[in-house]
Structures are given as C-alpha cells and as structure tokens.
Amino acid sequence: MADQTSDQGQAIEALFAEKRTFAPAPEFQKTAQWKDPAVYERAAKDFESFWAEQAHRLDWFEQWKTVLQWDDARKAARWFDGGLINASYNCLDRHVDAGHGSQVAFAWEGEPGDTRTFTYAELLAETCRLANALKELGVKRGDRVAIYMGMVPELPAALLACSRIGAIHSVVFGGFSADSLRDRIQDGSCKALITQDQGWRRGNKILLKNIADDALKASPSIEKVIVLKRVGDAVDWTPGRDHWYHDVVARQSDKCEPEKMAAEDPLYILYSSGTTARPKGIMHTTGGYLTGVSSTHQYIFDIDPSRDVFWCTADIGWVTGHSYIVYGPLANRTTSVLYEGTPDFPDKDRFWAIVEKYNVTVLYTAPTAIRTFMKWGPEYPKRHDMSSLRLLGSVGEPINPEAWIWYSEQIGGGRCPVVDTWWQTETGMIMLSPLPGITKTKPGSATFPYPGVFADVVDQSGKSVPLGGGGYIVITKPWPAMLRTLWGDHERYLATYWSKFGHLGYYFPADGCKRDEEGYYWLLGRVDDVMNVSGHRISTMEVESAFVDHPMVAESAVVSKKDDITGEAIAAFVTLKGGGIGSKEDADNLRKHVASKIGAFARPKYITFTPDLPKTRSGKIMRRLLRDVMENRPLGDTTTLADATVVKNIADLAQSSPTEE
Ligand code: WTA
Questions:
Q1: Which of 142, 293, 579, 621 could share a disulfide with 323, CB 3.0–4.6 Å?
Q2: Which of the listed residues 392, 420, 448 is the one where a domain comes to its end?
Q3: CB-count burial class (<10 Å; 0-12, 13-18, 19+) for 414
C-alpha cells in the first residue's frame, strides 16, 4: 500500500473535483424494479434469507437444505447445499416451456455486417445439438472443455452446452496467444477444445485454428477439437482429432436432457492474472453463481424482459461476458445484442449504429471505450437516434468523473442513469453499484455494496477506517457467486485472498478504496502488481517473464503508467545481455515478442533500455521508483537501494531515449 500512496493521492484529487450528484429521475423511478431503499435493511438483517429469496428466482430440480455453510479454516463456502440445478435449463428450457420460445435471445451482428438472430427456442436447440456432439466425442460430466473463439453466436451455445452435460468450461479469450492458450489448457487438463477457423477483428482475420494448433502441440490432454467455420479460409487438419462443427453438431438431436447438478458442482474455470507469472484458474460453481448474476443483472440494470434490449459490449472471453452476456441475461430471459467486432469498423460510429438498429435500451461498457469515444468526438454518436437508451453501465476500471459525465450526456442524452459497477473475476457478480431507482449517484463512485453484500474499508491491520478515510476494500461476509478455489491449488487461493485479513474473515480484493463522508465507495485501482490496461488485467510478472524469454534480454522490470485512454499503459525497463542500449527496432521486436507470448493486448507501450535496474541490497527490484520515473515524479526514498545512481541514470534514459509506441 505504501508503494501506491502517491499514485492514489493524484487519483483522489481528480475524483473529487466533480461535485454534482444525480438523484433517480421520477420518470425512471416510476417503473423501476427496486425503488424502496428498505431492500438494503432487509438484506442486512438476514442476508441468508435475502439470498434464499433470490435463489427462488431460479428453477431447481431439488430445493436446497441449507442456504450457507462456511468452513472458516478452508475459506470454503457451500451455498444452497443439497439443491439440484442446471444452468442451461435455467437459461433456456424454462423460458421456452413458459411460452417464450420465439423471443429473441441474441440478435447477433457480425463485424462485416452479416446478422443472425437466435430465439430462445433456437438457442436451446443449438445448445442441445452441441451438447450431444460433445457427448458423442466422449466428453463427460466433470470433464474440462476449453473454448477459444471469437464473438460468434455459437460461443454462448458452447458455454451452455457444457453446463447442460455438467462439463466444466474454460473459456480462453480469443486475443490470447498460443502459449497462453496452452498454459490454460494444461492447467485444467482439458479434454476437448471448441474453436473456429478464423475470426474477424477490425477487418483482419484472426487465425484462431492456427494458433490453437500451435497450442495443441503441447497439450496432450486434448482428445477432440470441434472447429466452427466462420470465415472460411483453409485450415490445417488433424484427422481423428479435429471435427467440423457443421458435421458433428448439425446431425445431432436437438433434445438433450440437462444433467441434474449439485449447487456446488463446478460450472467453469476462468483464468485471471495474479501477481506471479502463472495465471490463476478461478473456479465458480453453479447454484450460488447463477443466483448472484441473475439477481444483480435484473436489479442493477432494471431489466424487464418484455421491454429491454440489453447490450454488454465485453467479450465472452472475460468474466463480464460470462456473467452479463451469458448467464445473467439468459437466466432473466433477456433479449441481448451480441457484436463480433470493434467499435471503429468500418467507422467510429459502429456502436451507435448498433444501438439505433436494435433499439438498445441498456448499454454496459468500459471506461476505456468511453474515453476513446470522447477522443473521437461527439459527431459519431450524433449521427444516430439513440433515444431507445434508458440506462448505462460501466465496468472494468475506475471511471473518471469527466468520462462519467460525457457518457451520461453524450450517450445517455442526460436522461439515463449511469451505474458504475465494481467487481472482479473472483467475485463472479457485481459487488458495488448504484441501484438506479434508489441511489443518488456521484460521478466516479461505484456508490454502495449490493444488498446482501458486505464490504468495509480497512487499514493495514484490518481496522475499519472512519468515513472520509482511505485504505483497502474488503468483503466481510461470503456471497453466493464468490470463487470457491483456484483450480487445483487451494493453498494459493488461501494465500492470495485470505492471508491478509482472513483471520478477520475478510476477503481481500487487492483494490484501494476511499469512503467519503456519506459512506460512498470510491475505488482507486489495484494495490498489488496487477495492471489494468483497457480493463484487461495483466500481471507485471507475466510481462517480465515474456521479456526475459527473449534471447536478447537479461532482465526486465515492468510497471504501469497512467494513460488518458487505456487507464494504465505498460512501461517496461529492459536490460539487454551485454548491457547495451537497444535501438527502436529492438524495442519493436521485443513488443512483438511479448504480444506473441501473451496476446496483443499486452504489448508494452513504453520500453526503456537500461544497463541496470534499481534494486534493494537484497536484490529486490524497486518498482515504486520506476513508477515515479514514468510519472515524472520526484524520486521517493532511495536510501534502501544498493546503488542509488542507477535510478538517476534510468530517469535520464527514460527522458532522453523514450521508446514509445
Ligand atoms: C478493476 C472485471 C474501479 C478493479 C469485472 C478490480 C474496477 C479489477 C471496476 C477486476 C470499477 C473493475 N471501478 N475498478 N467499476 N470494475 N475494476 O477480474 O481493480 O477483469 O480488482 O473483472 O478491475 O478485473 P476483472
């Protein structure tokens, strides 16, 4: 924390410059699902009853026996134990059975402009066919299935097909490299992979099958691969292992009995960056997760399934897509837009063209995107009639008040409430957010914990900080969508999330937070070595190990630098073997190398070559000083350095030879 205070000081100043507050508009409140603040008290009084009430929103084959069992020694929660449930059944069958089969589940728009719609009945049939194909290929309950695809409508069907037969999906974002895919497949010993030939991104083809083939060279657990034809270019083929989606899926029956899963059976694994180079396999289970995402989706986005068209612009490869494109919205019988491509293809008004075309009523996107739209200017949204919008959401990183106001005015026309939602891959569901019919919002604040969620802001020792003060955010009671473990490594789970304040029973998210005099929470970013670049979590260690994997590199240290658009940008300090100063071309080669090791989203923006890195006498790299260098701040305390001239040299090098992309 001490490491971060100067960063946070600046963040706090910027946050509190905006003084306006926004009370719910009476017209909005009239139809809002929740408008009585008593819901907070009701949930606080008896949170188990509150969550049980929320779990009743779902269809259970068998009702649970206990709402929550908590093993404090193992930090192991069992929610709705004894209950039997199936996620795909809750997302599909029950809506079709209730007569809503012809309602659109996904209106899909391909990047090149092609479109398809899937009604609930069609999505159910597709899910069943794919589930039957998986079974035919030998996938059984409890097996892990890797999914590496672009944003095509078969992607949500793939998640649902796994959950239908009780297989555990492990989705790997389609922007990850072969190495990253391989590591994730190996960690989960996945038995099958679902992928596609190529994907579209900004008019370019992403060679998904090629990359997957590379990954599979060292993924012995994979027995079968299903390949969807999306773009149509030829791909390499391994007979016996590879199966075309249109062969193996199309011929299956469109009926498949959903498995009756225990509430605590795993639903999925999703990898996220931690403070070491090795990604963490965050594991979610079924009943509690579905309860959490369905409740938060309904009440935070004020969803009326007969009225709303919901569009979450995230990729399904990240948790936001899992929870608020697939499981939450479908459990709530929502009509959603699904878009394959980028916001600037073919032009910078693509998002607003989509909002107009599909009459989107609720839009959920990221601050990075909003800041990019601000930079592009208001003429792009102005080209379109966006009067269908009634609510706007933000997720992934702190939203600066200026971007919040711009979003509210330029996109929301000043009439849409803005919900800034704070949560993590680990929390599974939104933890802090305004309730749009209740909460007076303040631009830049995620406001308060959701009903039934308990948070605090504490100091180093875990003591609650009085209102007006800052420290760490902690979650003080279990919640239904919480991660249950890290796949195959419960010890790391305990060490990562529970070693700091676990003796007090607090979950530690590793985010800094300030609470104002009225108790509003203001999230201030990570306090560990995790960077947040365009809402993507990237570990400094992961990037460092990609650097040292290059034959030219002796050592590297990676820090984040504030960025007007991406929130944070990656800044690397690199020592070459032999100690020389690399050229611009060397820097570009290293950038390419990092992108090929992790994925293009992890390309370092700044590279500074230096003969030495600032280290303590015990050899620990002092990243705090490197952050000071990058932010042009006076260097903090350098007395613990083994050689104080090193950092002075680096500061000069960073000034005189900036290698910026
Ligand atoms: C950050 C994304 C401030 C935070 C859902 C967290 C936020 C990390 C917000 C999780 C927000 C996410 N305000 N910070 N509204 N939302 N974060 O796992 O640092 O990809 O710890 O989950 O993003 O990122 P993850």
A1: 293
A2: 420
A3: exposed
